From TrEMBL:
PANTHER family for the chain: GLPR-RELATED TRANSCRIPTIONAL REPRESSOR (PTHR30595), SCHLAFEN ALBA-2 DOMAIN-CONTAINING PROTEIN (PTHR30595:SF6)
Residues covered by the Schlafen AlbA-2 domain: 19-140
InterPro entries: RecG_C_sf, Schlafen_AlbA_2_dom, Schlafen_AlbA_2_dom_sf
Name of protein: Transcriptional regulator
Alphabetized Gene3D superfamilies for the sequence: 3.30.565.60, Schlafen, AAA domain
Cross-referenced Pfam families: HATPase_c_4, SLFN_AlbA_2
Length: 484
């Protein structure tokens, strides 16, 4: 992120109580190699400290913090016949964003190097990694614990923490982001002091203090709170697009609608819009005739929230899509599933942990790992066909099906329902049996043989297995194949 007001930055850095892993003050140092080693050390230490930038400032005494100015002009410095800035960029690997500025404040000359850490691997200068130990620059290899921690840290870079819009004023923040969901969705009282709201947004990771009296809006802040996502190029097109088709294929569509609000701002309204347009059937509930959607709202909500959370934001030009057909809903997100679809209920892994945590804290989805479980529970309670989870190289699709009696289900649908019912029972430390599967299909005891045939075929295809191979068939109990 570029430096817009170097004097404001200098003032802010001088407020720090002392030099730190990500901040170094010097007066004059014209040795390019020494400067290059500091760039490596500061970048690596900033990563360990969780900072988005590190700074090497010339013109300030490190102990007294006196502003004395510097004779150094980084943009005029040479290493051999090469400009220092070009040489430094060539000597540092992997490529990181390095900004070099010479500037004047109150009649004194200063220079600053701002470097962003690498999110790929530790930063080297001339083939060697450096780090900061206290206020001293050291070779990283001499401190294996720091080196190990740094490798772990470089693997934690997330889309959510990157900057969507930089150097914005407080007024800009409130013009582009809606803070109300922070309070409306959590039940916290909203303060009247705008600076307290800003502080809350910084603490939540929606904003970064850029140390220049302004703020950077993170992708997390934009995707959750944007009044209009098209203002932010990094997330434009990442809201939910809803398409309703007239029949069971794509030959004719009734409408297409794409949201423009951030997830926290628009999710409730999107769900209301969607549920009003789902296929419905007439039912009598407590003696009153009502039109009830084919799909339970809880299941729809959790599947959509799951698509938002697990999408791959690095796949450009496409976002989550909800397609409504006469007999099903298909929810697709960019990015393949990180988990085998057979283990999608019991294994936990997310591309976007900060987004997931924020969605949960706002009550927009279930607690960690519980969303799809609850989807299957709701579907079983209404005796609907089991959902289908389809992972491809570039996308993940979840299909929810309209009501269909057991006799009209295909063989594949019966086997899928059997498998996921078995998984759900296993997750509650229980077992599937012929009786539990009959209940799942809403069948009578006399349909024992029909269910036995489904179980036998599932065993044959290695989808389930007997919990105890020595047990008799009458009281047989079953587990998923991967739990046997």
């Amino acid at each position: 992120m570029p430096i817009h007001d170097p004097c404001a930055l200098l003032n802010r850095l001088l407020e720090e109580p002392n030099e730190s892993a990500w901040l170094e003050f010097k007066v004059n140092n014209k040795d390019p190699r020494e400067i290059g080693e500091y760039v490596s050390a500061l970048a690596n230490s900033a990563m360990l400290a969780g900072r988005d930038r590190a700074f090497l400032v010339f013109g300030v005494e490190d102990r007294s913090r006196n502003r004395v100015g510097t004779e150094l002009r980084l943009q005029q410095l040479k290493q051999g016949n090469e400009d220092f800035t070009n040489w430094l960029a060539r000597m540092v690997e992997p490529r990181v964003l390095i900004e070099v500025l010479d500037f004047v404040c109150d009649g004194l000359a200063y220079s600053v190097i701002a470097v962003e850490p690498s999110y790929e691997r530790p930063v080297k200068f001339a083939g060697t990694e450096f780090t900061r130990i206290g206020e001293n620059k050291k070779k990283l290899a001499e401190f294996p614990e720091h080196e190990r921690a740094l490798w772990i840290a470089t693997g934690r870079r997330r889309f959510e923490t990157a900057v969507a819009s930089s150097n914005v004023t407080t007024d800009d923040v409130f013009a582009t982001l809606d803070p109300d969901p922070i309070y409306d969705l959590t039940g916290e009282p909203k303060p009247k002091n705008s600076q307290e709201i800003i502080r809350k947004m910084v603490d939540a990771g929606f904003l970064l203090d850029n140390l220049e009296g302004r703020f950077d809006i993170t992708n997390l802040g934009a995707i959750m709170l944007a009044r209009d996502v098209t203002v932010f190029p990094s997330i434009a097109g990442k809201t939910v697009r809803i398409v309703k088709y007239a029949g069971r294929d794509k030959s004719r569509s009734d409408f297409e609608q794409e949201g423009k609000k951030g997830y926290a701002v628009g999710f409730t309204g999107m769900m209301r819009f969607l549920m009003e347009r789902l296929p419905k059937e007439e039912r009598y509930i407590d003696g009153v005739r009502r039109m009830v959607p084919h799909f339970p709202e809880t299941a729809v909500r959790e599947v959509i929230a799951n698509a938002l959370i697990h999408q791959d934001f690095m796949v450009t030009g496409v976002g989550p899509v909800v397609e409504i057909y006469e007999n099903r809903i298909e929810v697709t997100n960019p990015g393949n599933s990180l988990i085998s679809t057979d283990r999608i209920l019991d294994e936990r892994r997310s591309r976007n942990e900060k987004l997931a945590a924020t969605m949960r804290s706002f009550g927009l989805c279930e607690e960690r790992g519980g969303g799809l479980d609850k989807t299957l529970i709701e579907i079983e309670a209404q005796h609907l066909p089991a959902p289908d989870f389809i992972s491809s190289a570039n996308s993940m699709r979840v299909v929810l099906f309209a009501p269909k009696p057991f006799g009209q289900m295909s063989k594949a649908e019966k086997l899928r329902a059997c498998f996921f019912h078995c998984v759900l029972r296993w997750l509650t430390h229980d077992y599937m049996s012929n009786a539990t599967l009959r209940e799942r299909f809403s069948l009578a005891p006399e349909d024992y043989q029909a269910v036995s045939a489904v179980i036998a075929e599932s065993i044959k295809l290695s989808r389930i297995a007997p919990a105890d191979p020595s047990q008799g068939k009458r009281n047989a109990r079953y587990v998923p194949y991967w739990a046997a």
